[in-house]
Design a protein that fits this description.
The protein has about 200 residues and is α/β, with parallel strands linked by helices. It has a single domain (about 1-205), classed as 3-Layer(aba) Sandwich (Rossmann fold), CATH 3.40.50. The protein has helices at about 15-25, 40-55, 75-80, 95-105, 120-135, 150-160, 185-195; strands at about 5-10, 35-40, 65, 85-90, 110-115, 140. Helix 1 packs across helix 2 (about 40-55). The longest helix is centred in the middle third of the chain and has 17 residues, at about 120-135. InterPro entries: NAD(P)-bd_dom_sf, Saccharopine_DH-like_oxidrdct, Sacchrp_dh_NADP-bd.
C-alpha cells in the first residue's frame, strides 16, 4: 500500500498537539519526512499552524491538513491509509483511543500515543496486537509520558557521571504558577475516568 505521508499528527490543535507540532517542526526530521496534521476542525487546525508558525518564526501554512473525527471509523480509516505512522495525542484514550488504533491496524499504519492509562494500553494490546503483527505495523503506547523528566535526568547522569551508575533516586517538585495549580481538560477527564468505578472494560471482549 502506497503511503502519502510518513507521519500524521492526530489531534494537532489540542493542548499537547501544539507542543508536539512545535517540537517536530523545529527538529531536523521535519525536512526529512513527509508530514501532515489531522483533527476534526479545519479552522482550528489552520489556527494552530498559524500560532505555532509565529512562535518559531516559520510559515507552516503549507503543511497538509486531514479532517477526521475520532467518532467516524470511515474518516479515521482514510487518514490511516495515507500514513506510515500516526501519532495520536487525542485523549482521554479510554474514550477516543481505540477507534484510532483499530483504524491504524486495519489501514496498515503504525500507531504511537502518549497514553498513561494502563487499562487502555492493555486493552489495545490484547485486541489488536496480533493483527498489528500480521499487518507489519507497530502499536507503541505510552511513548513520552510522565516518566520523561526522570528518564532525561538518568540519561544526563549516564553521560556525565565519571563512573558506573549503580543507583539513581529521582525527586520531583511541582511549582504552581501565579494562578495556582492548573490541569488541562483532557488530563482532567482522564483522571475522572480512571477514578470511575461504575464501568470496567471487558478486556477479552
Amino acid at each position: 500500500m502506497s503511503k502519502l505521508f510518513d507521519l500524521v499528527l492526530f489531534g494537532a490543535s489540542g493542548f499537547t498537539g501544539e507542543y508536539v507540532l512545535e517540537e517536530f517542526v523545529k527538529s531536523e526530521y521535519y525536512q526529512k519526512y513527509s508530514f501532515a496534521i489531522a483533527g476534526r476542525s479545519q479552522p482550528r487546525l489552520e489556527k494552530t499552524l498559524e500560532k505555532v508558525g509565529k512562535l518559531i518564526d516559520q510559515d507552516l501554512s503549507k503543511i497538509p491538513i486531514l479532517i477526521a473525527d475520532s467518532s467516524s471509523p470511515e474518516q479515521l480509516q482514510a487518514v490511516a491509509e495515507k500514513a506510515r505512522v500516526v501519532i495520536s495525542v487525542v485523549g482521554p484514550y479510554a474514550l477516543h483511543g481505540e477507534a484510532i488504533v483499530k483504524a491504524c491496524v486495519e489501514g496498515k499504519a503504525s500507531y504511537v500515543d502518549i497514553s498513561g492509562e494502563p487499562a487502555f494500553l492493555e486493552k489495545v494490546q490484547l485486541k489488536y496486537g496480533e493483527k498489528a503483527r500480521q499487518n507489519g505495523v507497530y502499536i507503541v503506547g505510552s511513548c513520552g509520558f510522565e516518566s520523561i523528566p526522570c528518564d532525561l535526568g538518568v540519561q544526563f547522569l549516564k553521560k556525565n557521571f565519571p563512573g558506573t551508575l549503580a543507583y539513581v533516586e529521582t525527586v520531583g517538585q511541582l511549582n504552581a504558577g501565579p494562578h495556582g495549580y492548573t490541569v488541562n481538560d483532557g488530563s482532567y477527564q482522564t483522571l475522572l475516568l480512571a477514578l470511575e468505578n461504575g464501568k470496567v472494560d471487558n478486556l477479552e471482549g
